[in-house]
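Late entry, evening session. Most of the bench is empty. Finally got around to the prediction I had been postponing all week. Sequence below, unchanged from the version circulated by S.P.
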Amino acid sequence: MNDKLDPLIFSPHSHPTADAPATPTSSEPPPPTDWVVGPSTAPPPPATPLVTSSVSTPLTPVVRANTPRGILAPGSEFGVYRVGPCIGEGGMARVYQVEHAGLQRQVALKVLIDGAVGSGDESRDRFLREARSAAAIKHPNVVNLFDVGVHDGTPFLVMELLSGTDLESLLAGQGPLDESFVVDIMIPIVAGLAAVHDAGVVHRDLKPGNIFLSSGRDEEVEPKLLDFGISKAAGGEQLRHTANGLLMGTPFYMSPEGLRGEEMSPLSDQYSLGVVMYECVTGNNPFNASTFAEIFQLIGSADYLAPSATRPQLSKRLERIILRAMSVDPADRFTDLRELGRELLLLAGQRTRVTWALSFGDVPRTTLAHARLSPIVTAPSSAQPSGRTVAEVLALAARCLALAIWLVRLSASPEPPNMVVSAPA
């Protein structure tokens, strides 16, 4: 996978620049702190040496001005949360494992980094829009949001803490995934993303790193859709939000219309999901590029190999699904994700079909209910008449055999005396 280019925000009108230096991870020590002698209101002197702990006067920590807001030290407190290790980082935010002090519950805290790409009032507003968008969506395959707000000037949101791995890490470690596994994890993601679209939200940043394979009950994989960091509510606000001309998203997974700076829609998310499925079955992103200009050209012209070129054993149906979702013209893609989901269900195992059959249907519910129950109810009921017929045949055969044996024995034995009928004297 190309990971040279993974910005969350870039401009189509400017020459590509190198990514900003990475912020230090939580495993590194926090920036040094100057301890100033005196009450907390006293301004620090120009150059104050470190004072030993033997000084009885209260010490006031003064954090240096170049410490980015949103960089939290393990063991510190952020409102009612005790901060643990950093477990994720993006272009505009960091994610920490924290514990709610009152509930003693482990959750994930996402905070906006001050000084990162896209910081400022607009970035903070976008961050809070993410929280509102995510809070409106209730689906088992979309990450749950528990809290949102601003603490000491730092916007934050609190999400469920998941155990497992993201799809990007899985692909990096294993390469191409088994087709049946891809189908079984994509169907729940398609259902979750359809719920996102039903709420009037376009995700805009679908990629393997935003699909988390959580460990559910009995060690089953529960795919979860993550990170609405650049999501936007579909509707009148979109034009105002995109008026600055910035492109937001990961370019290797962006739709052609997104790269051109046009309005993005649920069909744009469908394109990105097609690219993710391509990468799952081949182990590689379809676009091998090292500059933004190359990405624009390759995506805009659909210049990539068919998945079967590197994965000959891939089923034709799944390849057609991927290529249709990745159509350059949005009108050539699936009408919506439910249509895509119905196509994927044809490739799924029985358990997946039973679980998700009702999630993608626009046909009468009675038809779907019959299709959903057919693996459990129809097959046994059709076998029962056959079972009764066999039993009846066997019983009849047994009776015939018994009668035949009796007749054979009767003919072989001498006629008993009481069977002789004599004429009357």
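Two things to note before I forget:
The chain is about 35% helix and 15% strand.
The CA atoms of residues 173 and 397 lie 63 Å apart.
Will write this up properly tomorrow.
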